[in-house]
Amino acid sequence: MKKYIKYTIGFSGIGVLIGLAISLVFNYLNGSTTYYPSSPNFVNQFAHPLNGVTVSVILWMLIGCVFGFGSLIFEFKNWSLLKKTIINFCAYYAGFAPLAILCGWFPFTWINFAIFTLIFIVIFVIIWLLNWYSIKKRFAQLISKSKSSFPSHLIVISLD
Question: With a threshold of 0.85, does the pTM exceed it?
């Protein structure tokens, strides 16, 4: 139980850090002189701007938990990579899509939701392929390193 509390705190903290960083970048890019943790439409729903920031922080915490706990799916040893990937994708999408809507990141219409879904799939595939390539490259380096570090005079030839 303690482990999951630590995970929750860590994943929540990472979610807030990333959410804050992204919101600051978007505020600077938009030339804003007032800080908006999300879209101005989102913040304007609240009586006080601080309430918008508080709700944003809570949503960022939840997003951090969705992605943090979702990544633990890859820790299952007896599942195939395909099964892990499909379940991971479903967990990320099912957890992240409603939170993105609650964050007010796009107006909720079916066309916007379809565009969000397409963007989500493209980003997921790109990240998955980059991770796969990185792991494949590290694995090849380990194989190469182990072959070169094996003393040639210890090679045993079987006569069977």
Answer: no
